[in-house]
TrEMBL record:
<keyword id="KW-0479">Metal-binding</keyword>
<feature type="active site" description="Nucleophile">
    <location>
        <position position="12"/>
    </location>
</feature>
<comment type="pathway">
    <text>Organic acid metabolism; glycolate biosynthesis; glycolate from 2-phosphoglycolate: step 1/1.</text>
</comment>
<feature type="binding site">
    <location>
        <position position="14"/>
    </location>
    <ligand>
        <name>Mg(2+)</name>
    </ligand>
</feature>
<keyword id="KW-0119">Carbohydrate metabolism</keyword>
<dbReference type="InterPro" id="IPR023198">
    <property type="entry name" value="PGP-like_dom2"/>
</dbReference>
<comment type="function">
    <text>Specifically catalyzes the dephosphorylation of 2-phosphoglycolate. Is involved in the dissimilation of the intracellular 2-phosphoglycolate formed during the DNA repair of 3'-phosphoglycolate ends, a major class of DNA lesions induced by oxidative stress.</text>
</comment>
<feature type="binding site">
    <location>
        <position position="12"/>
    </location>
    <ligand>
        <name>Mg(2+)</name>
    </ligand>
</feature>
<keyword id="KW-0378">Hydrolase</keyword>
<protein>
    <recommendedName>
        <fullName>Phosphoglycolate phosphatase</fullName>
        <ecNumber>3.1.3.18</ecNumber>
    </recommendedName>
</protein>
<feature type="binding site">
    <location>
        <position position="177"/>
    </location>
    <ligand>
        <name>Mg(2+)</name>
    </ligand>
</feature>
<dbReference type="InterPro" id="IPR036412">
    <property type="entry name" value="HAD-like_sf"/>
</dbReference>
<keyword id="KW-0460">Magnesium</keyword>
<dbReference type="InterPro" id="IPR006439">
    <property type="entry name" value="HAD-SF_hydro_IA"/>
</dbReference>
<dbReference type="GO" id="GO:0008967">
    <property type="term" value="F:phosphoglycolate phosphatase activity"/>
</dbReference>
<dbReference type="InterPro" id="IPR041492">
    <property type="entry name" value="HAD_2"/>
</dbReference>
<comment type="similarity">
    <text>Belongs to the HAD-like hydrolase superfamily. CbbY/CbbZ/Gph/YieH family.</text>
</comment>
Amino acid sequence: MTLQQKKVLLFDLDGTLVDSAPDLAAALNKTLADLDKPEFSQDTIRSWVGNGAQTLVARGLSGSATIDSQLDSELAQQAVTLFLNHYREQMCVETVLYADVKEGLVALKAAGFRLGIITNKPVEFIQPILSGLGIDALFEIIIGADTLSEKKPHPAQLIYAVEQLNVTTESCLMIGDSKNDILAAKAANMDSVGLTYGYNYGEAIANYEPQWCFDTFAEFSKATLG
Ligand SMILES: O=C(O)COP(=O)(O)O
Ligand SMILES: [Mg+2]
């Protein structure tokens, strides 16, 4: 099926629609400072985003994308609570939409595509960020990290979207910046688009072989509108 023939567009959030790394980094660094742990640059933290809040915090405490196997689980839990409190206070201060996202989404919806969000971000943050950036009314379905018991790269969120929207998997497209999006799509047997400008642990998204790759949101929406 071609891009133009798809009916449902399922978007990842962080690194795809919004550059949320500055606020995530600020909240993580405040958490690390609370615990007298070293802080990290925004670029380093950007390369740790993608597997949800718990993993981001564990990476911060480990000082590495690879989580320290000796990490104290009580400390990790305390740090997650601190992080969520800091992020709640600053989830949409420096967070911005990537170029041409709003215009592209509006045009795609007007052209008849059904739009959804599938993110590894905790549910409580999704709606406030979408409304803060003026795109909350565009989505028919929003699935976050804690909507189900599994999150990307597990395919459960994608399969659930297909069921809830009562459509075929073939008619859906997953659009994301991270290998987690592409791997989840492949596991759900769904086509995917990789966007090269987001966060993918410093790796090229093309390595994960999505069906299509685009360097900008405008190029994606133009190709999909046909
Ligand atoms: O918050 C994260 O870890 C990633 O969120 P995403 O799935 O929207 O990229
Ligand atoms: Mg992402």
